[in-house]
Write a structure and sequence with these properties.
The chain is of the alpha+beta class. Helices cover 31% and strands 28% of the residues. A hairpin with a 2-residue loop joins strand 5 and strand 6.
């Protein structure tokens, strides 16, 4: 599989610094996005540590014929979690730092993806925009438990939307959600932090991704710029991937 990738991270219109981080190796089909949190520069430290450490673990030794299995991905994420906790313990100003994570590995005709927190992965397929990840937030957990029928009902009841139930660096043992999905020709994949989804609706994102007058780089820029025009209250990170499947039998 050959993938076309465009990515951008921006501090937005309100925050003084950017605590998001993006990376990986598009040539090897590895994409990683992290949204850091914490005082001072701690959020930036946590997100960069997550991206750098995951990149080194998943990319070293990887070839186009091999994909990290679920166990190796889970172990890598647990290793990152421990590294963030240990650094926070060693450096007082980093105490309480953490980061969300969403990542994907494209291989042949599939994608294996993982996430912790509320950074998301979407897939646009044949005119349908689908959120592949389920947020690890208080409001989503309450919906999962049946306390509310949907997000709108929970918000009307006053449940905050930005309280995470899971994040790297927040717990000594972290559970990441990992799944695999078949890739189809024409698919478009969107990795993003909540700086985008908090400002831009799914329908608005789909409209930009379906705009045939924009190439991939322009789509990414328009998503980020649109979030800024809508207020840009948080850091905004976006990765858009267009896979091209091999025609060989």
């Amino acid at each position: 599989m050959i993938i076309e990738v465009a990515m951008r991270t921006d501090k937005g219109m309100v925050r003084e610094q950017n605590e998001d981080a993006i990376g990986g190796d598009p040539d090897l089909g590895v994409l990683i996005l992290a949204d850091g949190m914490g005082g001072a520069n701690a959020g930036e430290v946590a997100s960069e540590l997550a991206v750098d450490l995951l990149s080194s673990q998943l990319i070293v030794g990887r070839t186009s014929e091999t994909m990290p299995d679920e166990l190796s991905m889970r172990v890598s994420i647990e290793t990152v979690n421990q590294a963030i906790l240990e650094l926070a313990e060693q450096v007082p100003e980093y105490q309480g730092m953490g980061t969300t994570l969403v990542m994907g590995v494209f291989d042949q005709n599939s994608i294996r993806y993982a996430h912790v927190g509320d950074s998301r992965l979407y897939r646009l397929r044949q005119g349908r925009m689908e959120q592949l990840t389920i947020d690890h937030t208080l409001i989503q957990e309450m919906i999962n438990l049946g306390d509310f029928a949907n997000l709108e009902e929970a918000m009307m009841a006053g449940v905050p939307t930005n309280v995470l139930s899971r994040a790297l660096g927040s717990q000594t043992e972290i559970v990441s959600d990992i799944a695999e999905s078949e890739v189809e020709q024409g698919d478009l994949y969107l990795f993003c932090s909540d700086g985008l989804t908090g400002m831009v609706t799914d329908d608005e994102m789909q409209s930009i991704l379906e705009n045939k007058n924009l190439d991939l780089e322009q789509q990414v820029n328009e998503l980020v710029d649109f979030a800024c025009r809508c207020g840009g209250v948080d850091n905004i990170s976006v990765i858009v991937v267009r896979p091209q499947l091999s025609t060989e039998q």
